[in-house]
Design brief:
By secondary structure, the chain is an alpha+beta fold. 52% of the residues lie in helices and 14% in strands. The strands form two sheets. It has a three-stranded antiparallel beta sheet with strand order 1-2-3. The relative contact order is 0.11.
């Protein structure tokens, strides 16, 4: 039977699939609209299965927040190419998945896949399969994290990084002000740019603190030229007096003037430097008790904490505020006449930890030419 253009258009509007696929479906089903829809869904499943092994490490990270319910989610959905990530259908699907998370509160991604897609009677997986057929790429819902309450969001570079940061606000009405919204966005941008591991130093466990201290001590001992001079000089004396250095390195070092000795690493051999590090490590117990060394370790730990803890970081927008992120939040809270505390954050980077697709356009074209 003849298939009219209006029938093809109607099927396209119902399924979102391309015109040629819709026409083929109607031809195969003798123009039966319902059977054509089923046909396309079967094709979508087959297409999804066929493309499932293809690398999908592009896509977007979307932080989505519903102010009315004060529920939020940061979601990553992957595609094969960055081009598809800009597709309107793809972005509509991603937002629909985010809404589905908020509506159904799934335990994990597998449960989310079996949830009814927002506003439909089809599952997220079924809807995704339809999209795979329509767009022609492998796509995957990879992960999501929830955050409820008063939050601020930030999307960097079209979805390469998504951030959600939560706040406790004594007077919640102040969270609706432009000043609060600007502050929240600035803090979220800080998280995107500086990638903190913790909210504050209070969130670092005792075990993690001990591990950081141990690594800092080992690092200092294995880089002896960074040690305090009294400790370094005693290590060099041992290397020389006990003939742990070669005669050549001993002669070279003893021939250096005081200024040159400050940069002795530039003169002695790599072997001599390695030996000096071994001497330092062998005296780990006593060096670790040295008050000067203890101060050095504490200083380095404080610097690390300032780098990895959001609230201790220097606020990057120094044009707005000079000081820590915690200080910036407090300054805005004071202007608003209320108390504001950051209570957590989510930072998600697109494709983080995924195998990336290696583009070889010559091979891709050759495959197409050769069928």
């Amino acid at each position: 039977m003849a298939i009219s253009a209006s029938d093809v258009k109607a099927l396209r509007e119902k399924t979102g699939v391309g015109m040629m696929e819709c026409k083929k479906a109607l031809v195969e089903t003798d123009g039966d609209m319902d059977k054509a829809i089923d046909y396309l869904r079967e094709r979508g499943l087959a297409a999804a299965q066929k493309k499932a092994s293809r690398i999908a490490a592009e896509g977007v990270v979307l932080p989505y927040y519903d102010k009315a319910t004060k529920k939020g989610v940061v979601l990553e959905v992957n595609s094969e190419t960055d081009f598809v990530a800009k597709n309107e259908k793809f972005m509509s699907f991603v937002e629909g998945v985010a809404k589905t998370v908020l509506a159904t509160d799934p335990a994990d991604v597998e449960a989310l896949k079996e949830s009814k897609f927002n506003g439909t009677d089809r599952t997220v997986t079924e809807t995704l399969n339809d999209l795979v057929l329509a767009i022609g790429e492998n796509m995957k819902v990879r992960r999501f994290q929830r955050m409820d309450g008063i939050v601020s969001t930030y999307i960097h570079a079209g979805g390469s990084v998504g951030v959600m940061v939560g706040f406790d606000v004594a007077d919640e009405a102040k969270a609706e002000t432009a000043e609060f919204e600007a502050m929240g966005k600035n803090v979220a941008m800080q998280i995107a740019a500086m990638n903190p591991e913790y909210l504050s130093k209070a969130d670092i466990s005792d075990d993690e603190s001990a591990k950081m201290k141990s690594i800092t001590i080992e690092s200092a001992l294995n880089k002896p030229d960074s040690l305090p001079m009294p400790i370094l000089n005693s290590l060099i004396d041992e290397a020389i007096n006990d003939k742990k250095w070669s005669d050549e390195d001993i002669t070279i070092y003893q021939g250096l003037d005081n200024k040159q000795r400050k940069n002795f690493v530039n003169f002695i051999s790599k072997e001599a430097y390695a030996i000096l590090a071994e001497v330092a490590v062998s005296h780990k117990a006593e060096i670790s008790e040295n008050k000067i060394f203890v101060g050095l370790v504490q200083g380095r730990l404080a610097k690390q904490i300032k780098e990895i803890c959001l609230l201790e970081q220097d606020f990057v927008r120094s044009d707005l505020f000079q000081g820590s992120v915690a200080g910036y939040i407090d300054s805005v809270a004071k202007e608003l006449g209320t108390e504001v505390k950051a209570n957590g954050f989510i930072r998600m980077m697109k494709g983080d930890g995924l195998e990336k697709r290696e583009e070889n356009f010559a091979e891709e074209i050759a495959k197409q030419i050769n069928g």
